[in-house]
């Protein structure tokens, strides 16, 4: 029996004690994130938002098996946000349309939701009227049965059968009325409910998952009272799509108790906020660096390559890597690097090494910075590496770092002061 076959099926209920601590933790982490963001200038906030929205659009589509070009998405978002100093790639009309939907929903999070708006958003996902080679109904609610299936033709497994097409109009009127109403429920919980409720109605022939995640984002924006979106749940769902679909299926076969869904949603959202903190650290460090070198003349090639490494390009800075990235001669790369060494922008990792490598100097005295840390260690969590330490005897530090940097530090190829300078220089400007 499916959840929508119960009377009053949308009278969802849950065990408050099972989610209370998680909800408190999400709220705390949201506050910490926005506290850190307050130290960023407006342009840096826009850059962080653009990167987050890029991940949101790309991964929300990838969950549905649709691969978008991240550079096209980033360019479309950057242009719409008015960002400069971005290497633009001309986006397709499709990418532009998908980005427009996301920005309209999150920038105008307080506007009333309507059937017309939902239909327009769904149409934007399918400008040709086709999905995976098949013509579909666009810009209107579905007029046929909708089965969620997996497996090969002839051996399909039915996971869920949505409400009949005759019920969709009424079900959606009820959903939209709830969405636009004021309820004494946490916006985070309403985000989770909106996501589950919408995808369970499955009002359109295709695009329901992406729209459900967008509607969830709208409630999160309402809760944050900000059009600036710095975290997204899509990238975390995409890490473990199978678990996402399994949870949905179990609750869609239930009696309206959505506790398990809420617990999963809150844990996933918590991971998303923690991921956003990594992005914010990168943005803070990058902003700190460019403030430090603002008056130093650099060539276009030097600026481009420094930005690559500042954004997390995973490689040692060597003359060989520099030449490969810029398609220039090794002699040109050496001249570029020597110039940056003289200007104090790069530093040798190991002096007089046979095959020298370099680290970017972010502007905070490396030796002084290192002296402020204690209990420094590298920890592996899942597939990621983290720099764990205590700053000034009281502030816990937990920064995700590149695998390569973790390995280099452990083997003695990357000095501690260079590691801390790369990932924690922003602290000099905050504490």
From TrEMBL:
PROSITE patterns according to UniProt: FIDO
Annotated positions binding ATP: 206-213, 244-245
Fido domain ranges (all copies): 113-267
Alphabetized UniProt keyword annotations: ATP-binding, Nucleotide-binding
InterPro entries the record matches: DUF4172, Fido, Fido-like_dom_sf, Fido_containing
Single Gene Ontology MF annotation: ATP binding
Organism domain of life: Bacteria
Coiled-coil ranges from the UniProt annotation: none
Pfam families: DUF4172, Fic
Active site: 202
Classification via PANTHER family: FIC FAMILY PROTEIN (PTHR13504:SF33), FIDO DOMAIN-CONTAINING PROTEIN DDB_G0283145 (PTHR13504)
Protein name per UniProt: Fic family protein
Organism of derivation: Bacteroides intestinalis
């Amino acid at each position: 029996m499916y959840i929508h076959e119960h009377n009053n099926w949308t009278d969802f209920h849950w065990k408050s004690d099972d989610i209370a601590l998680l909800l408190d933790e999400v709220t705390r982490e949201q506050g910490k994130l926005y506290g850190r963001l307050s130290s960023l200038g407006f342009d840096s906030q826009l850059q962080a938002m653009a990167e987050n929205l890029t991940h949101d659009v790309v991964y929300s589509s990838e969950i549905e098996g649709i691969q978008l070009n991240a550079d096209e998405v980033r360019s479309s978002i950057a242009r719409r946000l008015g960002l400069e100093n971005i290497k633009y790639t001309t986006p397709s009309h499709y990418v532009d349309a998908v980005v427009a939907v996301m920005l309209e929903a999150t920038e105008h999070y307080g506007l009333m939701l309507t059937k017309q708006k939902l239909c327009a958003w769904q149409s934007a996902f399918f400008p040709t009227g086709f999905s995976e080679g098949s013509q579909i109904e666009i810009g209107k609610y579905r007029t046929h049965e909708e089965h969620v299936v997996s497996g090969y033709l002839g051996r399909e497994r039915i996971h869920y059968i949505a409400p009949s097409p005759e019920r969709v109009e009424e079900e959606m009127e009820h959903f939209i009325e709830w969405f636009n109403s004021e309820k004494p429920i946490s916006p985070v919980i309403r985000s989770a409910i909106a996501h589950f409720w919408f995808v369970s109605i499955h009002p359109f022939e295709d695009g329901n998952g992406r729209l459900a995640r967008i509607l969830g984002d709208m409630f999160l924006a309402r809760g944050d009272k900000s059009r600036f979106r710095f975290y997204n749940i899509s990238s975390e769902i995409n890490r473990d799509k199978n678990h996402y679909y399994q949870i949905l299926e179990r609750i869609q076969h239930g009696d309206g108790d959505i506790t398990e869904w809420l617990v999963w949603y809150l844990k996933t959202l918590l991971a998303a906020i923690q991921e956003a903190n990594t992005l914010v650290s990168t943005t803070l460090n990058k902003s700190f660096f460019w403030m430090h070198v603002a008056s130093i003349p650099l060539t276009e090639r030097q600026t481009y390559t420094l930005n690559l490494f500042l954004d997390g390009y995973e490689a040692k800075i060597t003359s060989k890597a520099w030449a490969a990235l810029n398609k220039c001669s090794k002699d040109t790369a050496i001249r570029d690097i020597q110039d940056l060494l003289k200007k104090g922008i790069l530093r040798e990792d190991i002096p007089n090494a046979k095959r020298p490598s370099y680290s970017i100097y972010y502007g905070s005295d490396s030796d002084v910075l290192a002296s402020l840390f204690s209990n420094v260690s590298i920890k592996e969590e899942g597939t990621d590496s983290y720099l764990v330490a205590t700053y000034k005897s009281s502030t816990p530090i937990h920064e995700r770092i590149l695998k390569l940097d973790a390995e280099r530090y452990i083997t003695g190829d990357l000095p501690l002061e260079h590691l801390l300078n790369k990932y924690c220089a922003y602290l000099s400007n905050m504490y």
